[in-house]
């Protein structure tokens, strides 16, 4: 099984993923950005602005997740923003074809709360993360159809993790 945590930057994906991994002994944190980092070391890939735009990233995420689950079993917790519907369709179709059950959640809060979290989260990277809020809002219509929306506005990450684990049937 994969528990995929989607949503924009500042929604609490990484923190919630860590809490899920603590809550579920059979869960493993899978950072798909590392697949993008690996691809970024390959010379002559086109400059597209985001590793998700490289088709090999999407295919390697599916293949890596499949191989990991075949090797170690359990649950992969993936905190990864995917705001392009075509990319999510490629990933989710590939995972379904591999026979992997995917529980897709979008961690959501209002724009003001997101902006506050982003500005107060880290000393750098605010502008880049804030610029993606509009992309997230534009993706919300298809995300609402493709995932379960989880409001994180007034909830602690441990509570969000417990609710997701319960919903996914991962607590047994």
UniProtKB/TrEMBL annotation:
- Superkingdom field: Bacteria
| UniProt cross-references to SUPFAM superfamilies, sorted A to Z | P-loop containing nucleoside triphosphate hydrolases
InterPro entries in UniProt: P-loop_NTPase (IPR027417)
Q: What is this protein's name?
A: AAA family ATPase
